[in-house]
Structure formats: C-alpha cells, structure tokens
Amino acid sequence: MKRVLFVCTGNICRSPTAEGVARVFFNQAGLDVDVDSAGIQGIHAGEAPDQRSQKAAMRRGFDLSKQRARKIAAADFTQFDLIFAMDRGHLTQMKRICPPELQGKLKLFRDLLPGQEGLDVPDPYYGGEAGFEHVLDLCEDGVGALMAALRANAL
Q1: 2-151 in CATH: which number?
Q2: Catalytic site residue 123?
Q3: 76 has catalytic annotation
Q4: What is the rounded distance in angstroms from the CA atom of residue 143 to the CA atom of residue 155?
C-alpha cells in the first residue's frame, strides 16, 4: 500500500480538499492508497476544514467534515511514500525539515499535471467562492494524474 500526504499552510483549505478528493477517487478505483493531509503551521490544529472548502467539496460529493487539521510531523517523512506540497513555499519549508535521504518523497502537487509544472495551487482563503471551486478543479485533475502515475508505477 502506498501512503500519500498532502500539505498546505494550515491544513484547512487546499490539503484537506486534496485528501478528500483522493479518498473518493482511490476508493472508487479500488486502489489501496492511504491518504492524509497536514499543514506547515499548526495554527488550526484540531479544527475542521474551512466551511467554504467543505461546502464546495460537498457539492461535488466529497465530504471533508470528519477531517481535522494537524501540523506536519517529523515522522511523516518516514511514514509516507509521497508528500505533495500545494505550493512552492510549502515545498521549500518541507525541504528544510526533511532529512536529506528522504527528500525524494517531496513533490509539488501541480507537477503531476503536464504543462503546470512549477505552479502553485492558489490559496482560496482570502478570496471568494470561485477560488474554492478552482482548488477543487486542480485537486480533481491532480489526483486523477496521481492515480494514473501510481497505476503505471511511475511514482
């Protein structure tokens, strides 16, 4: 079984959305992949995802309500096979704290999407509803690409 972690700033918008999409997609595809999410910061630890993220996700059939924010831990670098940063800042911060021999596990989420390499999943927190929909679009596309890569043993 593969273990995949998605990481954003506070673990209340982008990474829980990616986790929720991945849970549904992997389950529907019958793939044995364990998913989780975390934040670079622990400022929202124990909180449910942002209500706007939950509402947007629920409209598409993804229930985020049982998730709780947590801060990334040192053990995550050994316990997970793939760790996806939702933006370049998160990737940089994870590289600072991840042991050098495990840094090959760290990836930028949008690098999964051809033509979008090096791009961030934008933080919808300070914007309107359209930002949360855009994050969902990117998460659905990115998780779809992740599934294809896992099936092809490309990751």
Answers
A1: 3.40.50.2300
A2: yes
A3: no
A4: 13
